[in-house]
Amino acid sequence: MYLANVVEAPARIQARLARLLRDGEAQLGDSRDTIDVDVRLMAGGEASLDTSVEDGHLREDLYERLVALRIDVPPLRRRREDI
């Protein structure tokens, strides 16, 4: 699953994502039934994730789970040969 610009997600959603990644389970709607999930997330953001954590826009516990494998890709304006 790909999360585009995860930094802009509300704090409540970030907390739910962090809990999902930590516990590997989710609750289904109003029924509160718990199911096991095995997801791998990719997340992107326009701003630096490090700076977003420092500024308080991204939860630190979610950040720690997202940066298990980090790939920094510079914008295309700095990679003209890729166009």
Notable characteristics:
two-stranded antiparallel sheet, alpha+beta, 83 residues, two-stranded parallel ribbon, single chain, elongated
Relative strand content: 5-15%
Radius of gyration: 15 Å
Structural class: alpha+beta
Biggest sheet features? 2 strands, parallel
Distance between the termini: 26 Å
Shape descriptor reads elongated
Average pLDDT metric: 87
Task: Count the DSSP helices.
Answer: 3
**Contiguous runs where pLDDT drops below 50 for at least 5 residues:** none
Order of helices and strands: EHEEEHH
- Helix share bin: 25-40%
Topology, number of strands = 4
Widest β-sheet, arrangement of strands:
1-4
How would you characterize this protein structure?
This protein is an alpha+beta fold and 83 residues long. The protein has three helices and four strands. A two-stranded parallel ribbon has the order 1-4. Strand 2 and strand 3 (33-36) form a beta hairpin. Helix 1 packs across helix 3. The longest helix has 13 residues, at 11-23. The protein is elongated, with a radius of gyration of 15 Å.
